[in-house]
Amino acid sequence: MARFCRAVLDHAPLGSFRQRFFAHEPTDCPECGVLQDREHVLFKCTRYRRWWELRGEFEFLLRVSAYRELNGFLTTNESAFSFEDAPT
Asked: Its domain of life (predicted)?
C-alpha cells in the first residue's frame, strides 16, 4: 500500500523527489541514466515490465482501470517506487 500511495501522490524515493528535496543526492535512473521520475518508471524504464501502451501519466490516470493496473504493475515489479530502486 505504501508504494501505491507513493506512486499516486508522486512522492516516491525517485530522482524527481530527490531533485526537489535533496538536490545533492543522485537523481538518475541506475538502469537508463536519465532522470528517474514517475513517468519514467511507469512508461519508459527497461527495468520494469508493463502491458499498456500509453503516451503519459495524464492519459494513464484518466483510464477507469488505472488504479487496478497500477496495483498489477506494483505486484509484478516488486521494487518499483521503493527505496530499493532509488538512484544510487
From this structure: Eukaryota
